[in-house]
Amino acid sequence: MSLLQRTDHATYCPYKGDCTYFSIPLGGNRSVNAVWSYETPHAAVAAIKDHLAFYPDRVDAIEERPVE
Questions:
Q1: Taking burial as the number of CB atoms within 10 A of a residue's CB, which of 9, 29, 43, 65 is the most buried?
Q2: CATH superfamily, region 5-46
Q3: Using DSSP, how many helices (H) and how many strands (E) does the chain show?
Q4: pTM
Q5: What's the pLDDT tens digit per position in 3-58?
Q6: Which residues pair with 5 in a beta bridge?
């Protein structure tokens, strides 16, 4: 998360809840609002809390690393 910058952009899904967006400063304009997360999702989808999602056309690659 230290490489991401929270933006003012936000959306709401009636099923999942409030969605927060982040930009990747190193990616320039292409990576504005490239990442989103449901930080406090509704109970029915609580499993998505603390997960990040990426627009594939706004990043060069997505690499998952194991949680230590």
A1: 9
A2: Domain of unknown function (DUF427) (2.170.150.40)
A3: 0, 4
A4: 0.85
A5: 899 999 999 999 999 999 999 998 889 999 999 999 999 999 999 998 999 999 99
A6: 23
Please, what's the b/e burial string for 8-42 (b: 16 or more CB within 10 A of its CB; e: otherwise)? Answer: eeeeeeeeebebbbbbbeeeeeebbbbbbbbeebe
Distance CA 5, CA 37 (A): 12
The SS3 of residue 46 is helix
SS3 10: strand
Helix (H, G, I), strand (E, B) or coil at 61: coil
Q: The tokens of 15 are what?
A: 């099923």
